[in-house]
Amino acid sequence: MNKKALISVADKSGIIELAQGLKELGYEIIATGGTHKLLMENNIPAIKISDYTGGTESERVKTLSQRIAREILETGEISIVVCNLYPFFNQEGKTLDEMIEFIDIGGVTLIRAGAKNYKKVGVVFHPKQYGDLIIALKEQRFDEEYRLNLARKAFDYIAWYDAIIAQYFNPDFSKRDYFSFGAELFIPMRYGENPHQNAGFYLNPLLKRHFEVLGGKELSYNNLLDAEIALGAAMDFEENACAIIKHQTPCGVAIGDTLSEAYERAYMADSLSAFGGIVGLNRVVDAQTAEAISKVFYEVIVAPDYQPEALEILRTKKNLRIVKISPELLPKMNFKSVFGGILVQDADTKDFTEWKVVTNREPSKYEAEALKFAWKVVKWVRSNAIVIANKGRTVGIGGGQTSRVGAVEIAVKNAGVQANGAVLASDAFFPFRDGVDAAAKGKITAIIQPGGSKRDEEVIQACNEYDIAMVFTGYRHFRH
């Protein structure tokens, strides 16, 4: 029985070399229209699939036939399948009707059939697999174990492809009964959160164009976790804004008349903790801002873009990772793995349109602006979270605490004398008045919180005793 290989590829990279290698090993090659044409042009004999099956190729139907299916799935007469799929993920700006034409049917069927019958058939789909396939055939390593490994990769490939299509047709995960996430390895990593943990960054190929590393060392797992918060916290503001993050917690967040002023104010909010952090900015980075950033050791800077002069300055810091990320990549959904499953929720993008003054004294104009600022920041701090702020910058942050009063005490301590006359934001309600008592010791003058505690009246009374203005937003900002 002649050895047979079926080749049907959208990406024709490396296919000439592969086909030549198969020919030299005595394989009879069957190919679909475009692939067949390319092989014949390069003097590689091949049978056109329509001639092989006795059918005719149409625009949508090329490889689907009973004979092909039988020889792959049942008899294994076609013992090698080389197939990759229409590039559904590289079709930006096309209409739904146009996108439908890039949904591969026959190719998925070929790959699935070959992978299912791995005991007789080997399937490859990526040019990087071709060289090893030829070597395995020559060295007689094309055994069942080898083919099983190919099958595993093939099933991953078609699952990834279908998941991308599913996400395109229904991007709102909250309206889906079945969960799938189409992503491919975008950044290999040496390790994860700790050196003994394996890791990698996977990204939907539709989004690759929004992410670019412009300089510095390889990004790590922890870098990316912090970078997302740094950019997200900065992008929450319409004004020039900067957020400096460490261990997924803000060290300092500030706004300014210029981007460089916003950075300087964020840095001075907690210059000690900022060392070795991640800087997020919400504007195109200019030379003045880059010059200021370059004076301090940071792991990463992330922004929507950079002026050429700014890049030149930042690249003098050889280890500084310079990342350009479109705000479009900020998540609209959050995912967490739990007990072998996945929790899915909308990203926390809510911002208040109004609040309710619940104390005898209303916030002054200055306090009101500071409260709005602090409320934007507190949602980026792990619960229980407290943010103390004044004049468009944080001065004290207490987060990740198991008691709210403990978070207040840490924030007041971190703020020091700057707490005097500042305002305070709490991500959830005060269960007791002790949080207000702790704030009053730091001479806080106004508080913003969701409200909703059984002891709200007790908390309000405490504020009135200290002449602290307090407003309720009606919703919380838990972060875990």
TrEMBL record:
Belongs to the PurH family. The keyword rRNA-binding does not apply. The gene is purH. The keyword Transferase applies. It comes from candidate division WOR-3 bacterium. It comes from the Bacteria. GO terms for molecular function: IMP cyclohydrolase activity; phosphoribosylaminoimidazolecarboxamide formyltransferase activity. The IMP cyclohydrolase activity resides in the N-terminal region. HAMAP family: PurH (MF_00139). Pfam families: AICARFT_IMPCHas, MGS. Residues 1-125 form the MGS-like domain. NCBIfam families: PRK00881.1 (NF002049), purH (TIGR00355). It catalyses: IMP + H2O = 5-formamido-1-(5-phospho-D-ribosyl)imidazole-4-carboxamide; (6R)-10-formyltetrahydrofolate + 5-amino-1-(5-phospho-beta-D-ribosyl)imidazole-4-carboxamide = 5-formamido-1-(5-phospho-D-ribosyl)imidazole-4-carboxamide + (6S)-5,6,7,8-tetrahydrofolate. This is Bifunctional purine biosynthesis protein PurH. PROSITE patterns: MGS. Its EC number is 2.1.2.3, 3.5.4.10. Keywords: Hydrolase, Multifunctional enzyme, Purine biosynthesis, Transferase. One of its GO terms (cellular component) is cytosol. Pathway: Purine metabolism; IMP biosynthesis via de novo pathway; IMP from 5-formamido-1-(5-phospho-D-ribosyl)imidazole-4-carboxamide: step 1/1; Purine metabolism; IMP biosynthesis via de novo pathway; 5-formamido-1-(5-phospho-D-ribosyl)imidazole-4-carboxamide from 5-amino-1-(5-phospho-D-ribosyl)imidazole-4-carboxamide (10-formyl THF route): step 1/1. GO terms for biological process: 'de novo' IMP biosynthetic process.
